[in-house]
Write a structure and sequence with these properties.
By secondary structure, the chain is an alpha+beta fold. The protein has a single domain, classed as 2-Layer Sandwich (Alpha-D-Glucose-1,6-Bisphosphate, Chain A, domain 4). Helices cover 27% and strands 35% of the residues. The chain is built from four helices and seven strands, in the order E-H-H-E-E-E-E-E-E-H-H. It has a seven-stranded antiparallel sheet. A hairpin with a 7-residue loop joins strand 2 and strand 3.
Length: 159
C-alpha cells in the first residue's frame, strides 16, 4: 500500500480572495522569521524556528484565489537523523467554494508516515493551519512564531 501524504482541510465563511491573501501572508500565520517574498510565482523564502527547523521554499504555482504551491528546496531538522526529509516535497494550498463557505485543503506531498519527523510535523502543521491560519482568515490575527530575540538583545535587556 502506498503511503498517504499529509492532508488537512477546513471550512470558513470568507471569500477565496481573503483566503488566498491570508495564505500568502506567511508571516501572519507561520512565522515572523520568514525572509523573502511569499506571494508571486518563483518567489523564494526561508523559514526558521530557533535551532530546530529551517527550510527554503519556492512558489512554483500561484493561481489567484484557487491554489498556491511551494516546493521545498532545502530543509533542516535538528531532531532527525535523516537530512533529506521534506526536500523536494510540494506544499499545496487549494481553495474551493463549498456552498456558502470556502474550503481550504492543505497537502504536503511527500510528508508520509515513514518520515522520522511525521508525528511532529503533522501536529505542527495541524496547529498552524487549523488555528493560526484559520484565525488569520477569520479575524485578521494569526498566531505565528514570533521574531526571535537574539542572544545579544536578551543580554542587554537583562542589564
Amino acid at each position: 500500500m502506498k503511503s498517504k501524504n499529509f492532508t488537512t482541510t477546513f471550512l470558513v465563511g470568507q471569500t477565496p480572495a481573503e483566503i488566498f491573501n491570508s495564505i500568502n501572508n506567511v508571516r501572519g500565520w507561520w512565522s515572523e522569521e520568514i525572509e523573502g517574498s511569499t506571494s508571486h510565482l518563483n518567489d523564494e523564502f526561508t523559514y526558521h524556528y530557533e535551532d530546530v527547523h529551517s527550510c527554503k521554499m519556492k512558489l512554483i504555482e500561484v493561481v489567484p484565489f484557487k491554489k498556491v504551491v511551494w516546493l521545498v528546496l532545502d530543509n533542516y531538522f535538528s531532531f532527525t537523523s535523516g537530512k533529506s526529509e521534506w526536500i523536494g516535497n510540494k506544499i499545496i494550498f487549494e481553495i474551493e467554494a463549498k456552498g456558502n463557505k470556502t474550503q481550504i485543503r492543505f497537502t504536503q506531498e511527500g510528508l508520509v508516515p515513514e518520515y522520522e519527523c511525521f508525528d511532529v510535523c503533522e501536529k505542527a502543521w495541524t496547529d498552524y493551519l487549523q488555528n493560526s491560519l484559520k484565525n488569520l482568515i477569520i479575524s485578521g490575527k494569526g498566531a505565528p512564531n514570533p521574531k526571535e530575540v537574539k542572544r545579544s538583545q536578551k543580554l542587554n535587556a537583562s542589564n
